[in-house]
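Duplicate of earlier report; Protein arginine methyltransferase NDUFAF7 input re-posted below.
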Amino acid sequence: MNALLRRGVARVGIPCVWRGKRFSSRDEAAESNRGTPMLRHLTYKIKSTGPITVAEYMKEVLTNPAKGYYVHHDMLGEKGDFITSPEISQIFGELLGIWFISEWMASGKSPAFQLVELGPGRGTLTGDILRVFSQLGSVLKACDISIHLVEVSQKLSEIQALTLTEEKLPLERDAESLVYMKGVTKSGLPVSWYRDLKDVPKGCSFYLAHEFFDALPVHKFQKTSQGWREVLVDIDPQVPDKLRFVLAPCATPAEAFIRQHDEGRDHVEVCPDAGIIIQDLSERIALTGGAALIADYGHDGTKADTFRGFRGHQLHDVLIAPGTADLTADVDFSYLRRMAQGKVASLGPVEQRTFLKNMGIDVRLQVLLDKADEPSAKQQLLQGYDMLMNPQKMGERFNFFALLPHQRLHDASQERNACQSKTPASPVAGFDELVWQ
Ligand code: SAH
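Output:
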């Protein structure tokens, strides 16, 4: 923990932009389309097998094991391409830590649980959550906790290890194994790294995904007079080394993902990988308990064309210099809800400012302001708060969504002891106002 943190001060200077915001695009036509290794790889692929889906394009650009943007970049923070809430203010992770403890208590204080983060970035969020777990050690003392990180990026997994683990204890590495790295956190908990959720052991778990689902590949479709047609990526015949969007001449298999009967929009994006992950999470939670907290920018099945790129905190043309910019699409929470298939209950989406307010962000801010000695530290805390909460900034565009076992929302006591009188389930923090007792 660095000195700034110990004094309860926000960790980084507040940057001017974040990824969920749309900016007026620079004139990128004027920007030369640098022949990146990724562009060469994609043009070769398209020349050999024909135009590719946007989902395949996104997957190659972001997570191709040799050249993918996520695999070898540290894209987060002021010097990177975008900034995320945990990097803006420690309060964000602290309140999420309280959410997990609150859910662990409300669901019957299981003797052990796994904290599983999907796409942990620089490890900052898990670090802040673990600090809260340590501070509330008296509550969690009898509980056996382990940390499980699902991360495709070699570069970021190294940064996560630096953030979270004790330098003196060497990490175990095995690139060939499903668990490619293992270590011990600064607070003494076992931590393991995986490339895929399916490799994380099953067992009572609390899952966290912050700005993870928006990085998963989407298929894009356009309504035409002949019906839905998938948007593909092709090489521009007029300009060498330039990519362009085209429409598939006939129906493609991915069209099955569109809900034909009630789709009023004329452009839709569908993310089958998100559906698979939600199904897996739902089955796990229904089977072994726990919960999933998903936070991202997104919509409830209302938005159309949200696919965009970010480089250096600016909007970036998604087809220019692939591999040098982040690609992202808004999360469709209505699709996530459908993919849970009723196996678990879902809550939300609720706006970030509502969730954090319900979690007690104002109380926590005041405590940190009282502790901060320097005016500049107070200023940073207030700026961080404004960034997270202001409806014009991250307050409304970012949303929280949760998956919980059905019995959590109905009658917690019923499951444990049918003879006891029924007590109503306690409210879910963040989605209801948290009562401080
Ligand atoms: N949660 C972090 C980082 C968000 S960026 C934060 O809020 O600061 C997205 C993260 O997801 C990165 O860590 C990236 O490497 C990871 N990621 C992207 N696609 C992934 C995939 N298919 N599987 C696992 N991790 C992925």
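Confidence is low (pLDDT under 50) at residues 1-16, 20-32, 412-421.

Merging into the original ticket.
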